[in-house]
Amino acid sequence: MHQQAVQCLNVFGSRRVAELKKEFSGKLFITFFDPVRNATRLTMASKREAQKQIALAQHGGLELVLYGRHAQQHRRIQGLFQYDATWRAVLVPALTMTQPWFCGVFLHELFHASKDRKRVVEKRQRDTFLNPAWVDEEVRAHEFEREVLSAFTGGQYVHAVKAFIAHERDLRLRDIQATLQRRGFSAFDQLFSPASENEMSIRRAQVLVDATFLFVEKEGGGIEEKREAYISIFKKNRR
Questions:
Q1: Sign of torsion, CA 167 170 174 179?
Q2: How far apart are CA 126 and CA 110, in angstroms?
Q3: Most CB within 10 Å of its CB: which of 66, 69, 83, 140?
Q4: Beta bridge partners of 65
């Protein structure tokens, strides 16, 4: 998984990816989540590797916490991938994923890690859940994820999302999710290799967010409209 994560930082020449590469290259290390102890442990592949991990942990490294299926119901696990601001670590499920989607989601969480580090340096409080600043960061992270997916497909992913919007006459913002479910996701799935059920759920969620944000842009909306739309999606799908 470490190698796959490192490859994501070299995937393409985006400004944002370059910034993350500068910040995190050579500083990623893996630990394992122990749900019984609610703590992480070093991989301990060797004494030398353990010493390297400890040094990274003490000197600005970013912990990637790998967790298995048995830990998915633990209270700390709020989503398949997540940045945990308390641990200042990215939680990563032990899943086999296609490279475009692993990189898309991983870089999304790395974006949050970078923002959180800046808050710590500047001694600013973390944004509270669902407040405007918190949602704005989520909007930017999802748009970054879309940028990654577009790069992997030579722009075809964004083209497919825009084609969906253009095809549906009289499409309304509140009907996007139902329309996607009615039409199906084959136009998007054919751009990527077959995947597990868990990855497919990640794909569906991102396509919904991308279609929503691009529709808002088409209608002349900006960050405020995207913020409201994201909150609506979040509340509707959290039930």
A1: negative
A2: 16
A3: 83
A4: 31, 91
